[in-house]
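User: I've been trying to design a sequence by hand for this structure and keep getting stuck. Would you show me what you'd pick, starting by listing the structure so we're on the same page?

Assistant: Good idea, let's start from the same input. This is the structure you sent:
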C-alpha cells in the first residue's frame, strides 16, 4: 500500500471514529441534561450492554410531590408519570405533564402516558381551554409532522390522546395537550365528542377512588375479514401528510390504592359512531390482548403481587 492510499484510509478512519465519539459525547450530554446524577451513573454502568434502553432508568426517578406545578418536564415528573415502565422507547417526547411516543410513519402517537390525581383534574379558574390552539411540535422533523391542514375538511376531529381535562394545574399543562403529536383522527359526533369522552370522564372519576391513576392511551390498526375470507389491515389516511386514521383506540388504566395495591382496566373502542346507551364495560378487554395488538408492553414494571383486580375481577 503506497503512502497516499494509507494516508487517505487513515484520514477516513479518523473522521469516522471522530464522528462516532462525538456522537456519543453529544448523546451523553443530552442524557446529563435529562437525568439526575445517580441515573447517569446507572447508564454508564450499563453502557456496554447491547440494547440497553436509553431512558430505562427514568422510571426509577424520585417522584415529584403532588403539589408541585411543573412547567417543564423535570426528570422527577417524567419518573413519576412513567413509574411503571415505558411501553416502548421509540421517539419518546416528554411534555410538561405527560409523556408520549410519536409514530413518525403514521403521524400520530404510538402511546401517551398520564399520571392523574384529584388535584390535577380539579377545576382551576386560571386554566382556560378556549385559549389553547392546536399546534405543530417543531421538534419533530418536517418530514414526519402532521399539520392542522391535514385535518381540515377531512371529516375527522383532532382527537386528544392525553385529554385536556386531565391537566388543569396550570395553563401550560393544558396547552401542551394541544400539540398535534398528541392527536389522532377520530370520528367526531358519536365518538370523540360522546362515547370516547365518556371514557375520559370515567377515567377522571377514578381519582375519587385511587390517590394515583396511571393512564396509557393510543391508536390501534386491527385486521378485518374481507369478502374473500382473508384478514386485512385497512385504514384511511388524511391530508397531504397521509395522517393515519386508526381503526380503534385503547386505554389501559392502573389505579394505585392508598396501601399501594393496584387495579387495572383495559378498553378498546372502535373509531366509529357508538350509541350513547352502550355501557363502557362492553369495551373492556384483557390487557394482554391490547399489548399483542399494539406491539407494546404496558406497565411492565408492575409488581404482579400487588395487582388485585383486572377489569373489576379479582386476580
Amino acid at each position: 500500500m503506497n503512502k497516499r492510499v494509507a494516508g487517505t484510509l487513515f484520514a477516513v478512519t479518523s473522521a469516522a471514529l471522530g464522528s462516532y465519539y462525538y456522537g456519543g459525547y453529544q448523546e451523553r450530554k443530552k442524557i446529563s441534561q435529562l437525568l439526575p446524577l445517580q441515573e447517569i451513573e446507572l447508564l454508564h454502568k450499563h453502557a456496554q450492554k447491547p440494547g440497553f434502553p436509553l431512558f430505562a432508568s427514568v422510571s426509577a426517578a424520585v417522584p415529584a410531590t403532588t403539589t408541585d406545578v411543573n412547567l417543564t418536564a423535570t426528570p422527577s415528573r417524567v419518573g413519576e408519570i412513567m413509574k411503571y415502565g415505558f411501553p416502548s422507547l421509540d421517539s419518546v417526547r416528554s411534555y410538561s405533564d405527560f409523556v408520549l411516543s410519536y409514530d413518525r410513519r403514521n403521524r400520530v402517537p404510538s402511546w401517551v402516558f398520564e399520571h392523574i390525581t384529584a388535584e390535577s383534574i380539579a377545576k382551576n379558574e386560571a386554566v382556560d381551554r378556549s385559549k389553547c390552539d392546536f399546534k405543530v411540535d417543531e421538534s419533530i422533523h418536517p418530514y414526519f409532522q402532521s399539520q392542522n391542514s391535514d385535518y381540515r375538511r377531512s371529516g375527522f376531529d383532532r382527537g386528544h390522546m392525553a385529554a385536556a381535562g386531565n391537566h388543569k394545574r396550570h395553563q401550560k399543562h393544558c396547552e401542551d395537550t394541544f400539540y398535534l403529536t398528541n392527536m389522532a383522527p377520530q370520528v367526531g359526533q358519536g365518538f370523540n365528542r360522546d362515547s370516547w369522552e365518556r371514557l375520559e370522564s370515567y377515567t377522571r372519576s377514578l381519582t375519587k377512588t385511587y390517590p394515583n391513576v396511571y393512564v396509557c392511551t393510543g391508536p390501534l390498526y386491527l385486521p378485518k375479514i374481507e369478502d374473500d375470507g382473508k384478514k386485512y389491515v385497512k385504514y384511511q389516511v388524511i391530508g397531504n401528510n397521509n395522517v393515519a386514521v386508526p381503526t380503534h383506540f385503547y386505554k389501559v388504566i392502573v389505579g394505585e390504592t392508598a396501601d399501594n395495591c393496584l387495579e387495572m382496566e383495559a378498553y378498546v373502542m372502535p373509531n366509529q359512531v357508538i350509541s350513547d346507551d352502550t355501557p363502557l364495560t362492553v369495551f373492556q378487554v384483557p390487557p394482554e390482548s391490547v399489548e399483542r395488538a399494539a406491539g407494546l408492553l404496558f406497565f411492565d414494571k408492575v409488581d404482579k403481587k400487588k395487582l388485585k383486580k383486572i377489569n373489576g375481577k379479582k386476580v
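That's my pick for every position. To get oriented when you compare it with your attempt: The first helix runs from residue 3 to 34. The two ends are 71 Å apart (CA to CA).
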